[in-house]
Design brief:
Length: 69
């Protein structure tokens, strides 16, 4: 397996690749229905999460929605 060095929300991280964005969210214990993912400054739509691979050097921002009333 290849080691990928990426940045997630400003933090350097190493991942065992290949890995999709959806697999990363699962590893981070995040529900894809409650987050927005930006990969290299481009917002990904939910259907793209499974098919989009993370590459060495990528930068991801994951924004988690918080509900309230």
């Amino acid at each position: 397996m290849k080691t990928l060095r990426v940045t997630v929300n400003g933090e350097a991280r190493e991942l065992s690749g290949p890995v999709s964005v959806a697999e990363l969210l699962e590893e981070l214990d995040l529900d894809p229905r409650t987050v927005v993912v930006e990969l290299n400054r481009e917002i990904l739509r939910r259907p793209q999460l499974q098919e989009t691979s993370i590459n060495d050097g990528d930068s991801l921002e994951v924004v988690h929605f918080v509900g309230g009333g």
